[in-house]
Design goal:
Layout lengths: L1 H23 L10 H26 L4 H16 L8 H21 L3 H18 L6 H11 L2 H6 L2 H24 L30 H10 L8 H20 L4 H4 L13 H11 L3 E5 L5 E6 H7 L17 H4 L17 H4 L6 E6 L2 E7 H16 L1
Antiparallel strand pairs: 1-2, 3-4
Helix pairs in contact: 2-3, 2-8, 3-6, 3-8, 4-5, 4-6, 4-8, 5-6, 9-10
Length: 387
C-alpha cells in the first residue's frame, strides 16, 4: 500500500514536471541581436518595402495590401536575419518565382479557389524542398496568385515576372547594397575548410573536437528542418570551444607566453640574407618589421620556396640579387594583442595552418607567439591543474 502511494505520487510529480517543461516552450526566447543589428535590420526592411510599394503603385495604381504582405515578410528575412538560410539569394528568388508560377497554374486549372489555394501551397512547398529554395514568404505569394482577384488574372503568367519577379529582384538588390554598406555578411555561403596539406587527414582542430562531417551528420539525423547552415553551426561550436578553453586556461594571455626577443627582417633586406637568418635561427617564419617598429608582413619557408628559381628544389634556394623581402613576403597577417587570451590563438595555430602569430600593441610589434610557445603554455597549465 505504501509503495503504491509513493509510486502514484512519483508519477504525478513526473507528469507535473513534464507539463511545466512543455508550457515553458510557449514563453518568448531571447533574441541574440545587438542594438546595431536591430537598428540596421529595421532601417533596411523599411527601405526594401519602400521600393516594393513603388512597384505596386506602378502595377495597379496603388499599393495593394495583399501584395505588400508577403513582400514585408521577405524584407524581414533579408534585413533582420540575413544569415538565415531562408534569406539567401537563391531561395528568395527561386522560391518566390516558383510559388508564383504554381499559384497561377492552380488558379487557372482548378475551379474551386479554396482547393486551388491549398494545392498551390502544397505544391509550392514540395518544389521548394526539392530545389533547396525553402522561403516562407513564398507561401503568401502562391496564395496571392490564387486569391489576388481580377488584377492578377489579367496579368496571367506575366504575374510571375511583374510584379513578383521585379519586386524580389529589387528587394535583393537593396539587401545586397545595404548589407555591404553596413558590413554585414550577406550573402552567406558554405565555406569548406581548406585542406592545407592536401592529405586525407582531418584538420588538426577537428581530430579531437567535432568535425564538419560530425556536424553535418547530426543535422541530417535531426528530424526537423533547422534554419542554420553547417558553416554557421561550426563557427558557433568553435566559439564555444574557445570559451571553454578560456575557462580551463584561466587568465593566461599572449603577453605571458610570447617571445619578446624578436628576430625579424626589414622589408628592404635581401632575400638571401633573410634566408640565412631564417636557417641560422631554425625558424619557419619571421616577422617583417619596418624601421618604426610596425609590422609590414611575415616571410615564411613557403614564401622562400615559392620565390626559388626553377631547378632549385633539391638544393638551398637561390635568388636574383635584386630580390628583396618585400617582393616575396605575405602582407596580410593574422595578429594578436598582448592582452588577448591564448585560447583564442588555438584555432589559428592548431588547425588554421599558422606557425607564428605576431603580437602587436598600438601598431608596434612587441612579440610573437609560435606553435611551440602555445604547446608549452598548454602543457604547463595542464600540469598545474593536475597538481
Amino acid at each position: 500500500m505504501e509503495y503504491g502511494l509513493r509510486y502514484r505520487h512519483g508519477r504525478a510529480a513526473r507528469h507535473r514536471a513534464a507539463l511545466q517543461i512543455w508550457l515553458s516552450r510557449f514563453l518568448p526566447s531571447r533574441l541574440h541581436a545587438s542594438p546595431r543589428e536591430r537598428v540596421f535590420g529595421s532601417l533596411g526592411a523599411g527601405l526594401g518595402i519602400l521600393g516594393t510599394a513603388g512597384i505596386s503603385q506602378l502595377a495597379w495604381g496603388a499599393p495593394e495590401a495583399w501584395f505588400m504582405a508577403p513582400m514585408g515578410a521577405v524584407a524581414i528575412l533579408l534585413f533582420a536575419v540575413p544569415s538565415s538560410q531562408l534569406a539567401q539569394p537563391w531561395p528568395t528568388l527561386a522560391g518566390n518565382l516558383m510559388a508564383a508560377l504554381i499559384g497561377v497554374l492552380c488558379a487557372r486549372h482548378i475551379g474551386s479557389p479554396w482547393l486551388a489555394g491549398a494545392c498551390a501551397l502544397t505544391l509550392s512547398l514540395a518544389f521548394m524542398f526539392a530545389f533547396h529554395c525553402l522561403h516562407p514568404p513564398a507561401g503568401g505569394v502562391a496564395l496571392m496568385a490564387v486569391f489576388g482577384g481580377e488584377p492578377v488574372r489579367e496579368l496571367g503568367f506575366g504575374f510571375v515576372w511583374w510584379p513578383v519577379g521585379v519586386s524580389v529582384l529589387l528587394m535583393l538588390a537593396v539587401a545586397l547594397a545595404f548589407n555591404v554598406l553596413t558590413r554585414r555578411n550577406y550573402p552567406t555561403r558554405q565555406r569548406p575548410a581548406p585542406n592545407l596539406h592536401q592529405t586525407r587527414d582531418l584538420p588538426a582542430g577537428e581530430r579531437v573536437g567535432p568535425s564538419a562531417s560530425d556536424l553535418e551528420r547530426s543535422l541530417e539525423e535531426h528530424a526537423q528542418v533547422l534554419d542554420i547552415s553547417l558553416s554557421d553551426l561550426q563557427t558557433i561550436v568553435q566559439a564555444a570551444e574557445v570559451r571553454a578553453h578560456q575557462r580551463r586556461l584561466g587568465e593566461l594571455r599572449c603577453r605571458d607566453v610570447m617571445s619578446r626577443d624578436l628576430i625579424g627582417v626589414a622589408p628592404d633586406s635581401l632575400v638571401g640574407d633573410a634566408w640565412s637568418r631564417l636557417v641560422h635561427h631554425r625558424f619557419r617564419a619571421m616577422p617583417v618589421i619596418r624601421d618604426d617598429g610596425t609590422l609590414a608582413g611575415i616571410v615564411s619557408l613557403r614564401d622562400f620556396l615559392n620565390a626559388a628559381q626553377p631547378g632549385a628544389e633539391q638544393q638551398p634556394p637561390c635568388w636574383a640579387a635584386e630580390y628583396r623581402v618585400r617582393d616575396i613576403m605575405t602582407s596580410q597577417v593574422q595578429t594578436a594583442h598582448p592582452e588577448q587570451p591564448i585560447a583564442e590563438l588555438v584555432p589559428w595555430l592548431g588547425g588554421g595552418g599558422l606557425h607564428q602569430v605576431p603580437v602587436v600593441d598600438q601598431e608596434e610589434v612587441v612579440g610573437i607567439v609560435s606553435q611551440s610557445d602555445l604547446v608549452a603554455a598548454l602543457f604547463e597549465q595542464g600540469l598545474r591543474r593536475s597538481q
